[in-house]
Write a structure and sequence with these properties.
Bound molecules: iron/sulfur cluster
Number of helices: 22
Helix content: 40-55%
Mean pLDDT: 87
Number of strands: 13
Shape: globular
Strand content: 15-25%
Number of domains: 3
CATH topology of the largest domain: Nucleotidyltransferase, domain 5
CATH architecture of the largest domain: 2-Layer Sandwich
């Protein structure tokens, strides 16, 4: 019988979150297993596989990721991520050879992706392993501003394996992104990372006991599990269907998420629960003081949207030409353009539909290419299309306003024209909150939630024709040096189509609100 694969920190992360998830992953298993990828790789592990593959909640590491780590360790030995057991054996040997070398390690030396295996069948791949005065220094690279509990767990496992391999560990910590860093250009990333010592917290991690418990769990039957917050972490657990089939449906899913009491706020929801309500269907409208809550409860109870007729006059008063405007921004963890900082929100695409009073419609857009910092071209082209008259419709317009203010600060000569745009912006989010509710929103006022209500046929949840899961990931990928032109064009087309779907939602929202009186008469 083949031995189980060695334990690694992905196993530990799964086991700490949910022992059943760990067990199922270790089993391989049928359909659910095939659909469940391992947790997202972080740090150098990801870096050495594919620098541009990922987006973490709208923040992309950036095409400069390799350059950043190598700039910090210019004399590094780099060990590529092993896949097969044979590759692991070779990577461990290479790591030991690097450590055994008689040469004096030069300043800036490290092993990036050091692989070690210990006698208790645990294997680790250490992002950065370098020399200190009294032993080795281990670092986990996080393209984030803070670490989390999973980082401490992983580091505790790395130290455990290093010690069992007979290595003397002087320190263990994180390399986090320093948001005070400004990229000067020319690949100079010295100062991007800041060190955080994890020594004070590592003692709280009983890795010996964990390894032993994981092995026991791995050998045993499928463990019980109670679905909870862990099921939706890291993009959702791939075994949800399996667990829902095991549990009674009632215990896994809320009876009616669209009528959840929390829609009226947690505090009031707690009071309503105490009064015996299970959802908003049974709550008398007079019980709700806030008009927005009353509107939501009415929509839920009548099973149809509520749109206040008064909004029609408000919308009719908006001057033409009307500009429906959306921005897309990116915040690279590793800045790409000189003069920018980590995570700085940088606009790279705008989309604008211009409607005339007689019903004409012209669609415009700008999408940055590979030429460098796009902000000036972004601002110039935007000003050209917005002109000097007419309403500018946006949703949650603080976002667009802030980007325009930042552009005005960046480019003195464009500041007067950009500042003049601010006064013309109309926030459809504020108008919607004051006049509208649709049960499909389930208490959320995000653009996507409202779009599901006002433009149900317009799909905003994914990009069409490409694998990337976010506009940021698609844009970052489109900048990748050496990408073939057809792939780049596919990504750009997907981004432009996404922008146009978003402005279509804005137009439909505005049209719905402007026709509110007709809707009310029809009802
Ligand atoms: S769905 Fe939840 S309970 Fe089931 S394996 Fe995944 S994390 Fe565990």
């Amino acid at each position: 019988m083949a031995a189980n694969p060695l334990l690694n920190h992905n196993d530990l992360q799964r086991w700490r979150a949910c022992s059943r998830s760990f067990w199922l992953h270790r089993r391989g298993g049928p359909a659910a297993l095939a659909s469940s990828p391992p947790p997202a790789a972080t740090g150098a592990g990801r870096l050495l596989r594919d620098a541009d593959e990922s987006a973490e909640e709208g923040v992309v590491h950036g095409p400069g990721i390799n350059a950043a780590l190598r700039a910090s360790f210019p004399h590094a030995d780099i060990i590529a991520a092993p896949g097969t057991p044979a590759e692991w054996a070779a990577a461990v040997q290479r790591t030991l050879d690097c450590l055994d070398s008689d040469r004096v390690a030069p300043e800036g030396w490290a092993i990036l992706g050091a692989c070690l295996t210990s006698g208790d069948r645990t294997q680790v791949r250490i992002d950065v392993l370098t020399c200190g005065e009294h032993g080795l220094r281990l670092f986990k690279v996080r393209y984030a501003t803070v670490g989390d509990e999973a980082d401490v767990d992983a580091m505790a496992m790395w130290v455990h394996v290093a010690a069992r391999c007979g290595l003397r560990v002087q320190s263990a910590g994180l390399l986090l992104v320093d948001t005070g860093f400004t990229y000067p250009g020319h690949g100079c990333y010295a100062g991007l990372f800041r060190e955080v010592d994890l020594a004070p917290v590592l003692g709280s991690r009983p890795v010996d006991a964990w390894v032993s418990a994981m092995k026991t769990c791995d050998r045993g039957p499928e463990p019980p599990a109670t679905p909870g917050a862990q099921c939706s972490q890291n993009g959702g657990c791939g075994f949800a269907a399996h667990c829902q089939a095991l549990a009674s449906t009632a215990s896994v899913l809320p009876a009616d998420p669209q009528a959840c009491l929390d829609i009226v706020g947690r505090e009031l929801a707690a009071d309503l629960r105490d009064e015996g309500h299970a959802n908003l269907h049974s709550v008398a409208l007079q019980r709700l003081d806030n008009p927005r809550h009353r509107r939501a409860a009415l929509a839920i109870q009548q099973g149809a949207p509520v749109l206040e007729p008064a909004v029609a006059a408000l919308m009719r008063a908006l001057p033409y030409p009307r500009h429906s405007l959306r921005f897309d921004t990116i915040g690279f963890a590793v800045p790409l353009w000189p003069g920018t900082r980590p995570y700085q929100s940088l606009p790279f695409q705008w989309t604008c539909d211009v409607q005339g009073p007689a019903g004409s419609l012209v669609r415009h857009g700008f999408l940055a290419g590979t030429e460098g910092d796009p902000r000036r071209a972004f601002a110039l082209t935007l000003l050209q299309v917005l002109g000097s008259t007419g309403a500018v419709l946006a949703y949650n317009a603080g976002f667009e306003r802030n980007r325009i203010r930042e552009l005005a600060q960046q480019f003195d000569d464009l500041a007067p024209a950009l500042d003049a745009v601010l006064a013309r912006i109309v926030d459809l989010f504020q108008i919607a909150r004051a006049h509208y509710y649709h049960p499909a929103m389930a208490g959320s006022w995000s653009f996507r939630s409202v779009s599901r209500a006002v433009a149900p046929g317009v799909m905003l949840d994914r990009l069409e024709g490409v694998d990337e899961s976010s506009v940021q990931a698609a844009f970052a990928h489109s900048l990748k040096p050496g990408l073939d032109s057809a792939a780049r064009q596919r990504l750009r087309a997907a981004l432009q189509a996404h922008g146009q779907r978003e402005t279509e939602v804005l137009r439909r929202m505005a049209a719905l609100f402007e026709g509110a009186e007709a809707v009310a008469r029809h009802d």
